[in-house]
Amino acid sequence: MNPVSAPVRGILWMVVSGLCFVGVTALVKLLAGRVPAAESAFLRYVFGLLFLLPAWRGLSALRLTRRQIGLVSLRGAAHTVGVIFWFFAMTRIPLAEVTAMNYLTPIYVTILAVFVLGERLAMRRIMAIVVALGGALLILRPGFRELDPGHFAMLGTALLFSGSYLIAKIISGEMSAVAVVTLLSITVTIGLFPFALAVWVTPSWGDLGILFLVACFATGGHYAMTLAFAAAPVTVTQPVTFLQLVWSVIVGAAFFAEPVDPWVVLGGVVIMGAVLFITWREAMLKRRVAPAGPDAQS
């Protein structure tokens, strides 16, 4: 096998993943608030469960401890609120701003890992976090423009999703990846139901079709991302996620008449640069720790 083929395959799958996630954002924005955020999120997850039906049989053999049930429930609760905030933000602020602010999630994960997992923050990590937060300020520019509730919703989304991902990291060593994903989908669907019921508006068939496409793109995006991670190291695939910001700017300008804001693009570049630096440092540290052996060069 050509040694270059795996990284190239990983990059291509990450490109597909990014296109899918930009499609999700654009489709939700296309709803234009006709369906409330909580209801849109609920219906998206209901449709998403259809794609996970083959995995449900394996759940019958799963025996969770009380601790695992607590962690799964906590993750579902955090993700539920994060998803509502995310759907709300997508109907309020430009696509590029949603995408750029979503890059804050890995930064929040790094910060929360100190308190939740007891990880240490080296000075380089601290500097990267400060730079990323500076990028967020470039996007928001408080005091220089009026902030929309969607901006605050995205800040909450990134924080809640980071908590969800940390819990996933904890339980991923105790159960299969399929079980982790399926349990999240089930708990979020259940968690969204009362919120959706409280604001329920009967959707049109067209809006249901859009939400079904949202579920298709979201599922495809996560699947493509999984294939990308399996094919190549994160240090290879992570830079490709920056293309999501480029596509978001293009789609926002072409289909939603959103002006290109250079401050948002610059802020996204700064945040993504900090994320790439942290990712690269983690890879270097793992390489130093890993013992050298006959397979080290394979």
Draw up the topology in text.
Blueprint: H1 5-30, H2 37-51, H3 53-59, H4 66-90, H5 95-102, H6 104-116, H7 123-140, H8 149-171, H9 177-198, H10 205-231, H11 234-237, H12 243-255, H13 262-289
Can you characterise this structure?
The chain has 298 residues and is an all-alpha fold. The protein contains 13 helices and no strands. It has helices at residues 5-30, 37-51, 53-59, 66-90, 95-102, 104-116, 123-140, 149-171, 177-198, 205-231, 234-237, 243-255, 262-289. The longest helix has 28 residues, at 262-289. The chain is globular, with a radius of gyration of 19 Å. Mean pLDDT is 83; it is low at 289-298.
What percentage of the residues does DSSP assign to strands (E)? under 5%
Distance between the first and last residues' Cα? 12 Å
Number of helices: 13
Cα Rg: 19 Å
Helix content: over 70%
Q: Rough shape?
A: globular
* SSE string, helices as H and strands as E: HHHHHHHHHHHHH
What's the pLDDT, averaged over the residues?
A: 83
Find the structural class using helix and strand composition. mainly alpha
Largest sheet: none
Spans of 5+ residues with little confidence (pLDDT < 50)? 289-298
Give the beta-strand count: 0
Q: How do you describe this structure in short?
A:
The protein has 298 residues and is mainly alpha-helical. Helix content is 77%, strand content 0%.
